[in-house]
Write a structure and sequence with these properties.
The complex is a heterodimer of chains A (308) and B (438). Chain A is α+β, with helices and mostly antiparallel strands and 308 residues long. Chain A has 2 domains: 32 residues; 217 residues, Alpha-Beta Plaits (2-Layer Sandwich), CATH 3.30.70. Chain A has 9 helices and 12 strands. In chain A, a hairpin with a 5-residue loop joins strand 5 and strand 6. In chain A, helix 1 crosses helix 2. The termini of chain A are far apart. By secondary structure, chain B is mainly alpha-helical. Chain B has a single domain, classed as Formate dehydrogenase/DMSO reductase domain (Formate dehydrogenase/DMSO reductase fold), CATH 1.20.1630. Chain B has 16 helices and 3 strands. A 3-stranded antiparallel β-sheet of chain B has the order 1-2-3. In chain B, a hairpin with a 6-residue loop joins strand 1 and strand 2. In chain B, helix 9 crosses helix 11 and helix 11 runs antiparallel to helix 13. Chain B is globular. Classes of the chains: A alpha+beta (308), B mainly alpha (438). At the A-B interface, helix 1, helix 5, helix 6 and strand 7 of A face helix 2 and helix 6 of B. The structure holds iron/sulfur cluster (SF4) (2 copies). The site of one iron/sulfur cluster has 14 residues of chain A, from helix 6.
């Protein structure tokens, strides 16, 4: 009898080991592209939430990702985790009277922030609206494609993440994978997001985008200067969004977001809302300004204005 | 401890026995499950791109099924209330079946959510302390809590009762009654929380209406009991379990009331939207009339309306309610009607038009359909297995043998063609004693 038992136990152990192996393989299949070493599969699986990492752990994690991405894209990739600057609250201004709807910002953003090229992910959506109707979404044209812009009788309204002061997307996330940083930027931890897409249902601006497939990012187009909470390469199955180019704007000296830099007509303004001397403050105080979907009380830090 | 092991062993032996029909049914379900699993592996491999969901419509068929099934699960409470609060005898015997249905439905709910998320292997992020559950901020976190509580609760009650009956003991009332009473608010809570999940989103006017919760509850009190009646009819016909007409009648009556409230609330909603005719009318228009030439859901919702109203009439008129044929037809109509209305009919218009008024028409892909079919098969498989054990126990055909170790199995076949006249001789088989000591 006892012999039988021993034998049983042995079999059980074996099968459990097999099971664990299978589980690891299964998890690897889901989490990682390609056939990476199983050690990194486990490290990815047990990766802690960004805000729970100690200084030391953060350093190691950044190094691990730098190594992983450098290998993947065949060039030196940096992954920073620059924290918010003290005394800074970012605000964005968009001059509707100037925007010509050329979509250069859309593609400038894609290049800077390493979005998937196939399927295409755009963090900025430019809508063509009727001058007669004003900001009336029911008459918005999203896929306008004339030979030349602007078209007569129309104006253009780019929409991206409004970096809400009261972001509904943050409130609904079941695992706190998305949150608002002290400088007002709403970020996503791509290694913590479970991909439930509740935040996408909650965002009133269509600002959040999901990686429905493994993002296709050609190595030579990849921007190697990245931030952990911003433009580092994303896995499939997680949500991403505009971060006001966190990898640029948080540096010192800071750089403007890619979309504001590329705009050919200077319709885009960016600055520190806490600095009374900033251009953005001047515009808010002196121009005709509105915020999008004001009634929802999301309190965007993205200001549409008419300079003329 | 030993007893639990014997009980478990006995159930395994029991579930492996049955008539040809039983084997065919189980095999059929296993095939569907295998197909579903294959579809899921494909989805894991390629990502959710294999579905028709996109950024504009970011939830689809999976979450629709989930929403509907939460309603079915919640309806178990309907059978528990009269059975235990009012000691209404005819229903008492079948309340256990209701609880087992709830368990199966919740299993399906959890599976539907699992296949919908992008990173199921990160489920541990949802576990408090180990992960970072966003409680009480996120309604999805609430849903995780209440669904799992409800599952545990129903499983505990049902297994406890069955386990005791197996050992020929009376279940201890002091243990079951508080749990049963607690299961009533839990059932309401799973459905309320699921409704709140949609309800709380200011971005989606179609869901952002204060009567969403009562509408959810009303329709759950239709679909769940309708499903129960269908199950009762099948169980009565194909197994040895007897269910009184009185019990079924009571449930049918409840459906009539619930359907009335459901239709009333829907009417109130439609009046408000159409009379106000604000920009928030668009999703309702999309659902009922089509919007800018897009009308994928229109035939479906009108089918649902027709079914619901017909069923309401069938259940209202005593003659058709008491007639078994029309009763079954009514139940099927209710089930399908609510499946459309509180499934795709509720989820999809939340996204069409989307927050920037773009219209992306959604229709599930083959993978989504196959995978969902697999999950339904899994749910039915779980339910079949649970019934396979529960029904013989309740009938006294499965209990501990005289030696206290083996089990007595009096019901070898389980699924049989059952005619009320010759029930005795056709079903009773030579007694069989399984000795687990071998
Ligand atoms: S715009 Fe959307 S994604 Fe951005 S902070 Fe507001 S709710 Fe969140
Ligand atoms: S998709 Fe990711 S970020 Fe969005 S709510 Fe779900 S877990 Fe949070």
């Amino acid at each position: 009898m006892s012999d039988v038992h021993k034998c049983d136990k042995h079999v059980l152990h074996k099968s459990r080991r097999k099971f664990l192996k299978g589980l690891a393989a299964g998890i690897g299949l889901i989490a990682l592209p390609g056939k990476d070493a199983s050690a990194s599969v486990w490290e990815d699986f047990f990766q802690k939430h960004f805000r729970e990492l100690s200084k030391d752990e953060l350093r190691k994690t950044l190094a691990r990702f730098e190594k992983q991405y450098s290998k993947q894209f065949g060039k030196q990739v940096t992954v920073k985790a620059t924290p918010p600057l003290a005394g800074v609250l970012y605000g964005y201004g968009l001059d509707l009277s100037r925007c010509i709807g050329c979509r250069r910002c859309v593609y400038g953003c894609v290049g800077e922030n390493n979005q998937s090229r196939d399927p295409q992910i755009h963090w900025i959506r430019v809508m063509q609206l009727d001058k007669e109707k004003g900001v009336d979404l029911a008459h918005a044209e999203h896929y306008y494609n004339p030979a030349q812009v602007p078209e007569k009788g129309h104006f253009y309204m780019p929409v991206q993440c409004q970096q809400c002061e009261k972001p509904p997307c943050v409130k609904v996330c079941p695992v706190q994978a998305t949150w608002k940083e002290n400088d007002g930027i709403v970020v996503v931890d791509y290694n913590w997001c479970i991909g439930c897409r509740y935040c996408m249902a909650a965002c009133p601006y269509g600002a959040r985008h999901f990686n429905w497939a493994k993002p296709a990012l050609p190595a030579k187009e990849m921007n190697p200067v990245t931030h952990y909470l911003g433009n580092r390469p994303r896995p499939k199955g997680v949500v991403e969004k505009c971060t006001f180019c966190i990898q640029r704007t948080r540096e010192q000296p800071g750089r403007y977001p890619a979309c504001e830099e590329i705009c050919p007509v200077g319709a885009r303004k960016f600055g520190n809302l806490l600095d009374p001397e900033s251009e953005i403050r001047y515009l808010i105080e002196n121009k005709r300004v509105f915020i999008f979907k004001e009634d929802l009380n999301t309190q965007p830090k993205f200001y549409y204005f008419y300079a003329t | 401890m030993k007893n639990i092991w014997y009980f478990f062993k006995g159930t395994v032996v029991l579930t492996s026995k049955g008539s040809k029909a039983y084997y065919c049914w189980v095999l059929f379900l296993l095939c569907l499950m295998a197909i579903g699993a294959m579809a899921y592996f494909r989805q894991l491999d390629e990502g959710l791109i294999v579905t028709a969901m996109r950024d504009q419509v970011s939830w689809g068929f999976y979450i629709s099924n989930f929403t509907f099934l939460v309603g079915v699960a919640a309806a178990a409470v309907l059978l528990v209330i009269p059975a235990y609060v009012y000691h209404w005898k005819p229903i008492k015997e079948i309340a256990v079946l209701g609880e087992l249905l709830a368990v199966s439905a919740i299993v399906m709910c959890l599976l539907f959510v699992t296949v919908d998320i992008g990173h199921p292997e990160r489920f541990w992020h949802l576990i408090p302390k180990i992960g970072l559950l966003n409680f009480p901020q996120s309604l999805l976190a609430w849903d995780v809590v209440v669904l799992n509580t409800y599952l545990a609760l129903n499983l505990t009650i049902a297994v406890y009762i069955l386990y005791n009956l197996y050992y020929k003991r009376q279940p201890n009332k002091n243990f079951t009654t508080p749990l049963l009473l607690f299961s009533i608010p839990s059932a309401i809570s799973i459905h309320t929380v699921t409704a709140f999940l949609y309800n709380g989103l200011g971005a989606r006017p179609f869901w952002n209406s204060s009567i969403l919760v009562p509408r959810f509850l009303a329709s759950a009190f239709c679909s769940g009991p309708a499903f129960m009646i269908l199950i009762f009819m099948l169980v009565r016909k194909y197994t040895k379990f007897k269910i009184e007409d009185k019990a079924i009648q009571k449930v049918a009556e409840l459906i009539a009331y619930a359907m009335f409230i459901n239709l009333l609330l829907l009417g109130a909603e439609l009046f408000k939207e159409y009379y106000t005719a604000s920009v928030h009318l668009a999703p309702v228009q999309y659902l009922f009339q089509g919007l800018h030439g897009h009308s994928a859901l229109v035939p479906w919702i009108w089918t649902a309306m027709l079914f619901n109203i017909t069923a309401f009439v069938l259940f209202l008129v005593p003659d058709t309610r008491r007639n078994n044929v029309t009763l079954v037809i009514g139940c099927i109509l209710v089930f399908v009607g609510v499946y459309i209305e509180k499934g795709m009919g509720l989820v999809i218009p939340g996204f069409i038009p989307d927050v920037l008024h773009e219209i992306y028409e959604y229709a599930p892909t083959g993978i989504e359909l196959l995978l969902s079919m697999g999950i339904w098969a899994t749910g039915l498989f779980v339910f079949t297995m649970l019934l396979r054990v529960a029904i013989p126990i309740l009938n006294g055909d499965f209990h501990v043998a005289d030696d206290g170790v083996g089990s007595y199995i009096g019901d070898q076949l389980f699924l049989i063609q059952h005619n009320s006249e010759d029930e005795k001789d056709s079903t009773d088989n030579p007694e069989f004693r399984h000795d687990s000591a071998e």
